[in-house]
Specification:
This protein is of the alpha/beta class and 253 residues long. Helix content is 43%, strand content 16%. The chain is globular.
Length: 253
C-alpha cells in the first residue's frame, strides 16, 4: 500500500478521483481509484454557493467529514486560497482537516475578489513558507499541492511565469505543483523538467493522453469539477424527457 506521497512518485501518474460528497467518493473507490481529491467548485455548487471561498469554511469541514467517513482512501482537500491571508489561520484550517484524516491540501496562488487575480509571487511564497513552518512545529504532516494559476488566467508568458513561481514555491515548502489549463506538450515538458516537485495537470478537452502525460513527467491528473457538471447536464436531460414524454419511463430505460 503506497502512501499519498509515494503515489506521486510512480511511473504512471496518480489519477485522482475528484469528488464532492460521500456518494461520489464511494463511486471513485468502487471503480478502483487510489486516492481522492475534493473539487471546491463542485462542492460549493452542490450547496448553492459560487466558487471562490463563498462557501463558509465550517460547511467545507462538514462536507469533508462526511466524505472521510464514507471512504478509506487517502483524501486531499481543495481549500482554495486558504480562507485567510494570515499564516496562522491557514495553518489552523489545515490542522482541522488533518484531524479528520485528510492527507493533502490544494492551496492556490490566486484570489477571487471582484475577479480572480494572481497573488504577488514573493508574497505568496512567503505565506507558504510560514504556513509550512507552523505545520512542522505542530507536527501536522500534509501534502501541500500548490496550484499555480498562470495558465488558468491566461497571463502573458504563462510558461515562464509558472516556472518562476514553481521554483519559488518549491523553495518555500510545496510538495507538489498543480497547473490547471496547461495542455501543450512543450509547456508540460518544460515545467516538469524545471522542477523537482511532482507536476499535477487537469482534464481539458485538448489534454494529451495519460500515456503521453506519463512520458512528459506528469505525476498527477485531476478531473476538476467536470464530472460533477456532466452529471447535472444528464439530470437536466432526464427531467426534460420526463416532462416532454408525460412519462417516467426514461428513468428506467
Amino acid at each position: 500500500m503506497h502512501t499519498f506521497t509515494q503515489l506521486h512518485q510512480l511511473s504512471n501518474p496518480l489519477l485522482l478521483g475528484n469528488v464532492w460528497d460521500a456518494t461520489s467518493a464511494r463511486c471513485a473507490e468502487q471503480t478502483g481509484y487510489q486516492a481522492l481529491g475534493t473539487s471546491s467548485a463542485a462542492m460549493a455548487s452542490l450547496l448553492g454557493y459560487d466558487d471562490g471561498e463563498q462557501m463558509p469554511f465550517q460547511e467545507l469541514v462538514f462536507m469533508v467529514q462526511r466524505i472521510a467517513t464514507a471512504t478509506a482512501l487517502p483524501l486531499s482537500v481543495d481549500i482554495e486560497a486558504g480562507y485567510s491571508q494570515v499564516p496562522e489561520v491557514i495553518a489552523n484550517h489545515i490542522q482541522q482537516l488533518a484531524e479528520l484524516g485528510v492527507v493533502g491540501i490544494n492551496l492556490e496562488d490566486s484570489r477571487v475578489e471582484t475577479s480572480r487575480n494572481l497573488c504577488d509571487a514573493d508574497e505568496f511564497a512567503s505565506l507558504l513558507f510560514k504556513v509550512r513552518e507552523i505545520l512542522q512545529q505542530r507536527q501536522v504532516n500534509v501534502f501541500i499541492n500548490v496550484r499555480c494559476d498562470a495558465f488558468l488566467l491566461g497571463v502573458d508568458e504563462a510558461r515562464a511565469e509558472t516556472i518562476k513561481r514553481a521554483r519559488l514555491y518549491q523553495a518555500s515548502g510545496a510538495d507538489g505543483l498543480f497547473v490547471p489549463c496547461i495542455t501543450q506538450v512543450d509547456d508540460i515538458k518544460a515545467v516538469a523538467e524545471a522542477i523537482r516537485l511532482p507536476l499535477n495537470v487537469m482534464a481539458m478537452p485538448d489534454l494529451p493522453s495519460f500515456e503521453v502525460l506519463a512520458q512528459l513527467g506528469v505525476k498527477r491528473i485531476s478531473t476538476g469539477n467536470f464530472a460533477f457538471e456532466q452529471m447535472y447536464t444528464h439530470l437536466g436531460q432526464q427531467l426534460a424527457a420526463i416532462k416532454q414524454h408525460g412519462s417516467c419511463a426514461t428513468l428506467f430505460s
